[in-house]
Structure formats: C-alpha cells, structure tokens
Amino acid sequence: MIEAMKNVVVFVRDLEAAKRFYRDQLKLPLAQAGMTMMEFFSGGTTLGVAQALTPDALVFVGRHTGITFRVKDIDSFCTELVQAGVRFDQPLEQSPWGKMAVVSDPDGNLFALVDR
To answer: What is 7-51+62-114's CATH topology?
Structure first.
C-alpha cells in the first residue's frame, strides 16, 4: 500500500547553478545535498534536484511543468526574483485562481508561483 508521496525530482545539467537558483534565488530550504542530488524541504514531500548523468535522464532536463509553489506575499517575492535575475516565463498577473507567475530554472524547468 502506498503511504505518501516522497518527492518530485527535476533533472538538471549543472548542479551548482541549480543550487544557486533553488537555494539562493527561490530561497527553498535545503534539506540535504550530495554529489549528484539535492533535496529541498524536510519532512513531507521533498523537491529533489538531480544531475542528469545518463542519456535516459538527460531527455528530462528542462521538460518538467506543472510544479507549483504557494508563496506568501507573492508581489514582494516576485520583485526579489526579478532583482535577482530570475527568468519569468509568465509575469505575475491575476488569474481565476489568484495571482500567478511562472519562472524557470537555468535548465528551463518551469515552476508556477501562486498566492493561494
């Protein structure tokens, strides 16, 4: 029987660039880091960021969509991201489900930011 979701993993080419994006720009809490993978958030579901080391993994780099982060004070947070040079694929705007923006990591993996 499945008990819970453990993690969602995105694949990247450059783990150090990914660390700067996820930890320093998005300010996600780094739970653990190894030579080829990092996990953000401790307890519950984690976000794994893994270096793509095989041809099978490389095909997934930059292809993840549908991952959404709920953000407190989304206006200020998006302003910080703009100042930090984060690429916005969709600017912060009002949507039927609240304010939303879409950003991408250095490898093109997309993440939605929402306020609720």
So the answer is: 2,3-Dihydroxybiphenyl 1,2-Dioxygenase; domain 1 (3.10.180)
